[in-house]
DNA sequence: TGTTAGCACTCTCAACCTCAAAGTGCTAAC
DNA sequence: GTTAGCACTTTGAGGTTGAGAGTGCTAACA
């Protein structure tokens, strides 16, 4: 069966209305509030037909209609009316990003907080995966007792450090020496590339082979996000949405949310190309039953900036969420793009 | 009124029974299950008296008795029977701490996880506050474009780093030079001490005064715990306890738990001397209504190792929790005490 | 052929009742 | 001081009722 324009219109009304009222939608309110000139009986016929097509369901005979996951998908693809953010929302984004401090940790938290505050949903995010970042600076610092600290600073100022074991026989001077050699070898390379380069150069390292091995191992761990790069903001915001009066939903939600690993899995960068992804839970993937996860993968100047989004009830205000995600993306691009230029002004006010 | 021995005994039975059953305790079960030789009517008289003294309450006339906060306090101070951990619990602690990797982040997470797993409550923790740590190694690394990275490694391998702004006129060699001067000045000092030393030396720094200023500012931020030093493990464990069938309790809980700042406030080091602290929520302090927070502050070799504990319902298994906290403390002390000795063995298996 | 008024039907939800079960307080006897 | 016994209170499950909401269907209408 082909979807008539009126069916689409009615479906759109049902989804919009349900998203904003959280109450099953009846033929009466559609006819009286949104579709003047048509009687409720006519709407009822259309509703019955939309139900047959799989877009609507009802909990019981006299309960009004509720959109199915399929309806939400259709809504997002075809029916949703893109809006603009209010002035105050735009101002909020701008002010939140204006106090720029170099490090990513801070940026990750800001992005997540902005998204959560503006959408009123719980925000999840995962920072830039460093794998393709260029090593700007690599240093090995002696820390006594057979240990050294490996510090790596990359292009967009992602900082990684970890301790590595070194032979106890190595004096501080040896370490400094090794540091210079490693720096020469690795600086300017991407982290992923560095691993290969390291493996190849392994043979030349003679007695310090062990050190090189450790450095390569450390480089490997950088391909996975650290716990600190996974953020969660506004977990308590779920209580602003009536579906979470039901303890079962809260349980589902909290179980996912309580482990950084699970969050990372949920929003993990399965696909770099996708700008905005909407996933509606129905038991298939990691998305909890009755939940939706909307994420955006950000990039600027060819650099991945991480994936951020919200997790909330299936009855989510997709329009608002997507608009916020888009605007945050734009702001982020400007911020990162304009950072070098702005650096001078940024010094005096501290 | 003086508390007779029998009253104490009965109070202890009520608290124990309620902790384990979560059901209001009746005179009948006390007399039949725990206090043979006395009739339920006698117990009833005692219960009425204990209620008058403020130790017990009942939700309604025929509902059995429930301990009041005052009863829990009394129980913890006088009545609780200290127990030992089971073999398997002890093994678990040992195995969890046996794979030692130098960095504190890892340790913090392990401690918190062990506590949560063994107690079956949500565990909260805050890592060692670095303020009294000795600076073992301080380095300033040039990062181009008027920025440098300040890396500080302290005694128990707490690692802190942050970017600081430097005059753009400074060449890499200048930075390295400054790094040497700063290292000489600060190494061996405690972080708190370093701030004063820095302020005093400020005048001598001439054109690099600005750099020194930034370093001191960075040192200041180390006195507060970072978000990463505040841990939360097993938030979903609350659903194993019947009080969290009630959505209101979950709300209270999640609201506190959802912000690292609030957690830090909750368990913040108000008192270094206290080994184990039990706080029972009744709206006075940060502890949420109907919740208890039990924490232990750990130290070894004169070094603070952080504060860890659990947050859960007032009807908490205090005996188990306190036993676990004590045993974790012992294990931690051994671990940190024995670390230098063990370092050699620890290398081969990687 | 599409639309609509009208009505019977279904389902929920709150209010109310009833009744058994649990536990207490009190009294009188030991 | 202890206890048996009993009246009293309260809860909670189960059942009933009636109002309200919303639908599906039918028959009439444009």
Strand tally of chain A is: 10
Low-confidence stretches of chain A: 340-350
CATH-level-4 superfamily name of the largest domain in chain A: GAF domain
Number of domain units of chain A: 3
Major sheet of chain A: order of its strands?
7-3-10-9-8
Tell me the series of helices and strands of chain A, N- to C-terminal. HHHEEHHHEEEEHHHEHHEEEH
Strand pairing plus helix content of chain A: what structural class?
A: alpha+beta
What key phrases describe this protein's structure?
350 residues; alpha+beta; Arc Repressor Mutant, subunit A; Beta-Lactamase; Enolase-like, domain 1; 5-stranded antiparallel β-sheet; 3-stranded antiparallel β-sheet; 46% helix; DNA-binding
What does this structure look like?
Two copies of one chain form a homodimer. Chain A has 350 residues and is α+β, with helices and mostly antiparallel strands. Chain A has three domains: 5-79, Winged helix-like DNA-binding domain superfamily/Winged helix DNA-binding domain (Arc Repressor Mutant, subunit A, Orthogonal Bundle), CATH 1.10.10; 87-128 and 228-349, Beta-Lactamase (2-Layer Sandwich), CATH 3.30.450; 131-221, Heat-inducible transcription repressor hrca homolog, domain 3 (Enolase-like, domain 1, 2-Layer Sandwich). Helices cover 46% and strands 18% of the residues of chain A. The first copy, chain A, contains twelve helices and ten strands. Chain A has helices spanning 5-21, 27-34, 40-52, 69-79, 87-98, 104-119, 172-186, 191-201, 209-221, 247-257, 260-267, 318-342; strands at residues 56-57, 66-67, 122-126, 135-142, 147-154, 159-165, 230-233, 276-280, 291-300, 303-313. In chain A, the strands form three sheets. Chain A has a five-stranded antiparallel beta sheet with strand order 7-3-10-9-8, sandwiched between helices. Chain A has a three-stranded antiparallel beta sheet with strand order 4-5-6. The first copy, chain A, has a two-stranded antiparallel ribbon with strand order 1-2. In chain A, a hairpin with a 4-residue loop joins strand 5 (147-154) and strand 6. In chain A, helix 8 (191-201) runs antiparallel to helix 9 (209-221). The termini of chain A are far apart. Residues 340-350 of chain A have low confidence and may be disordered. At the A-B interface, strand 4, strand 5, strand 6 and helix 10 of A face strand 4, strand 5, strand 6 and helix 10 of B. Chain A binds a DNA duplex (30 and 30 nucleotides) through helix 3.
């Amino acid at each position: 069966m082909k979807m008539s324009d009126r069916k689409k219109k009615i479906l759109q009304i049902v989804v919009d209305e349900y998203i904003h009222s959280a109450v099953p939608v009846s033929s009466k309110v559609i006819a009286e509030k949104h579709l003047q000139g048509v009687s409720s009986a006519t709407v009822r016929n259309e509703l019955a037909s939309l139900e047959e097509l799989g877009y609507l369901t009802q909990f019981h005979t006299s309960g009004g209609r509720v959109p199915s996951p399929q309806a939400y998908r259709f809504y997002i693809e075809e029916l949703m009316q893109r809006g603009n953010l209010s002035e105050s929302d735009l101002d909020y984004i701008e002010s939140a990003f204006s106090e720029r401090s170099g490090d990513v940790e801070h940026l990750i938290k800001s992005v997540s907080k902005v998204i959560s505050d503006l959408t009123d949903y719980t925000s999840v995010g995962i920072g830039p995966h460093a794998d393709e970042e260029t090593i700007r600076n690599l240093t090995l610092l002696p820390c006594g007792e057979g240990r050294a600290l490996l510090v790596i600073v990359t292009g967009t100022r992602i900082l990684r450090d970890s301790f590595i074991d070194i032979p106890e026989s190595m004096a501080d001077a040896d370490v400094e020496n090794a540091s210079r050699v490693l720096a020469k070898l690795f600086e300017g390379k991407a982290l992923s590339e560095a691993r290969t380069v390291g493996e190849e150069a392994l043979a030349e390292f003679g007695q310090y082979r062990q050190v090189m091995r450790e450095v390569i191992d450390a480089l490997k761990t950088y391909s996975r996000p650290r716990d600190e790069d996974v953020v969660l903001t506004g977990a308590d915001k779920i209580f602003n949405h009536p579906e979470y009066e039901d303890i079962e939903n809260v349980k589902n939600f909290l179980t996912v949310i309580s482990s950084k690993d699970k969050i990372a899995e949920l929003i993990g960068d399965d696909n770099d190309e996708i700008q905005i992804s909407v996933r509606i839970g129905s038991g298939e993937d990691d998305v909890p039953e009755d939940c939706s996860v909307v994420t955006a993968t950000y990039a600027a100047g060819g650099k991945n900036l991480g994936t951020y989004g919200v997790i909330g009830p299936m009855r989510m205000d997709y329009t608002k969420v997507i608009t916020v995600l888009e605007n945050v993306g734009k702001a982020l691009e400007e911020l990162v793009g304009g950072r070098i230029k702005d650096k001078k002004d940024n010094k005096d006010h501290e």
